[in-house]
Predict the structure.
Amino acid sequence: MVQRPKQRRVMRLESLQSRQLLAADLGGLASLDLDDGVLATASITGTSAFADPTVSASDAGSTRSTARDLGSVEDSVGLSGSLSYRDTLDVFRFELDRDGDVDLALSRMRRDADVFIADADGNILQRSSNPGRRNESLSRFLSEGTYYIGVQSRSFWGTGYRLELDVDLVTPEPPPPATPISPSVPGGQPVTPITPGSSNPSAPSGSIAPLNDVAYFGGSREWNLNLVAAPESWAAGYTGEGVTVAVIDTGVDLDHADLIDNLFINPGEIAGNGIDDDGNGYVDDVSGYDFASRDANPNDVGGHGTHVAGSIAAGNNGFGATGVAPDATILPVRVLGNNGSGRSSDVAAGIRYAVDLGADIINLSLGGGYSRAIDAAIDYAEALGVFVVAAAGNEAAAVPGYPDRFSASNENVLSVGAIDQNTRLASF
């Protein structure tokens, strides 16, 4: 039996709100830059969108207003086209009636060409830019709406191409049966309002009472910690002590003053002796592992992983930021490059590695298309009692992408979104 080769899935990091956290000042990846302005027939607004200028007949199909309309797409569409010196960009418009996974594949090029996808305003969401005549592909979960596909020539000479658009829409779920709302608990007793610091006499046996209020922690920049009641948790003894959190990301700054006391040290490994002392298959992994470069140096190459680690466990030491669990241990696992992208196979390997090394929690502030390897790795974590926290993404979609969407089927996966200090959806 001949098996089809597995399609490589590319994961991306999730952007974080820019605030005083460690030394990071990170922008999002909600839009991607057009990198060298080679478009001959479409101008660029800023660095994140392709514009929609007045178009002549000879420029048809190279802007949003002249894009070829594919209509509402629910499954697969195949297109053939060509680019030339005078026509370096073809644009296609399509609609999604529901949220879904979108896969794009560009092939059969005689010269170099790229493919990208943009939202209704022309902001580039993702692009594939393999060199030469290599096939291009990208995968992304998109919410319902209007989108554009761009096929862009990267060569002075013309080229033909084959574009495949594959859409897998989310199956709508039937609404749940209506549940009567009653102001009383079973037995007809009225519900007693709960105030902070008090127990709930109407709560079922075994429920957890609210934590006692404490004084506001820090200054105006620490609103996030106070909003999630982190200071109340600390006062009750929950500071993260004894808990290891694996940050599977761009790595972690191993010398950062706000993290250095909380970084994982593998007790079964001897640094620098070139021997796999603990027999786990990874040599000299004293401080974690780098699956992107295949070595035992998971130092941060992009800043994102350090930012995430600081959100989790920056020390409550009077300087810098303070994490939600300032006494937790951070296990650095690098799976992404400095551009925030990486292979799903590396993410899956990182999850299994962290589980085997004793992590209690896996943090995945990244996302992409469905990956069977990551799915299996999360099942492996669940079987061994390891909890997974995954970012909901920056698209404000009704349904998140992967691996966050595993929270619908896996009891050990928690989906996390972002709000601002007024409890509104975060701007990014």
Q: What stands out?
A: The chain is about 10% helix and 25% strand. The radius of gyration is 25 Å. The longest helix spans residues 344-356.
